[in-house]
Amino acid sequence: MAAAIAWSTAPFFTRLLHLDSWTILFWRGLSGGGCITAFLVLTRGRAGLRDLAETGKSAWLVACLSTLGMVTFIPALQLTNVSNVAIIIATGPFAAAGIAWIWLREPTRPSTLIAGLVALCGIAIIVGSPGGAADIRGIGLACIMMVAIAAMTVAIRRHRQSSMVAAAALSNFLGSLVSIPFAQGLADVTGRDLAVLAMFGLFQVGMGLTLFVLGSRLLPSGQASLIATLETPLMPFWVWLAFDELPTPRALIGGSLVMGAVVADIIADNWARAQTGTTINR
User: Fold this and answer.
1) Three-state DSSP class for 102?
2) Cα 86–39–10 angle (5° rounding)?
3) pLDDT in tens, 162-193
4) What does each C-alpha distance from 175 to 22, 23, 67, 164 come to in angstroms?
5) CA–CA separation, 221 vs 166, rounded Å?
6) With 175 labelled, which of 33, 34, 127, 142 sits at a CA distance of 20 to 30 A?
7) Full-prediction pTM beyond 0.85?
8) SS3 label, residue 183
9) Which residues contact residue 1 at a Cβ distance below 8 angstroms, ignoring those fewer than 6 apart?
10) How far apart are CA 149 and CA 169, in angstroms?
11) What residue ranges do the domains of the chain occupy?
């Protein structure tokens, strides 16, 4: 739950910063990458640094997909309503299921296909009447980000033997590197901005990942996924609380469909696993 809360603060920190997206990405990447590297050193010592230095092809694939997700996420938050981005993120599990079926030939349960169609209807409601050119770009970037993160999830599953925590650190540093040619305000960052950016990287990136890694070891994957969906309603909640930014009626209707589909699919998955376990025990 703490990991989901940490991840959900990204829109809050983004709204606090009146900087261009690339400048935010540069400083956030340095801060987040540094925090994850520190976590690697604290938990694995020199082996953690070795994981970072000896990154293989699979970890580079994960890092590149994660970087694509990061460089589209922040601009999406700045261009469209936070609730739109949050709801599109929630459809990630269904995109991951489709990519896994294409790439790994993993079978997909009928209930997941139905839930995915319901979630797609929710997205169609949200994008059916965009507020303008900026809104369209923001929604488009959010969709690219969601697909990139879904593909990254499947890549992690495909290459379980690689150190993906090291890949997460690498992706943050890579995001900073990519941002340098486009950032317009690197020299204009104030002391207050640096403090907010440091908290952005520490709390939302470093702490979120660390807590999820630790917590997911102690829970069934279905339960961990269900708890992680708290991120979706919390993202618009923080910006409403701090900046009075309200979700649109379309976002509320579409979001209800998406969240209902996600929760129903996870419950169906848990029920199927329980039935399988009961059969094996018999």
Assistant:
1) helix
2) 20
3) 667 788 888 889 999 999 999 988 888 999 99
4) 9, 11, 5, 16
5) 22
6) 127
7) no
8) coil
9) 227, 230
10) 15
11) 2-281
DSSP state of 248: P
Q: Letter for the amino acid at 42?
A: L
Q: Where are the alpha helices (DSSP H) in 45-163?
A: 46-53, 57-79, 82-90, 92-103, 110-127, 133-158
The rounded distance, in Å, linking the Cα atoms of 42 and 48 is 8
CA distances from 176 to 31, 195, 234 (A): 10, 17, 27
pLDDT interval class at 277 (50, 70, 90): low
Helix, strand, coil % in the chain, rounded to nearest 5: 80, 0, 20
The per-residue b/e assignment along 6-24, b for 16 or more CB within 10 angstroms, e otherwise, is bbbbbbbbbbbbebbbbbb
The type of residue at 95 is A
Cα angle 245, 249, 255 (rounded to 5 degrees) comes to 90
pLDDT in tens, 36-65: 888 888 888 887 778 777 777 888 888 899
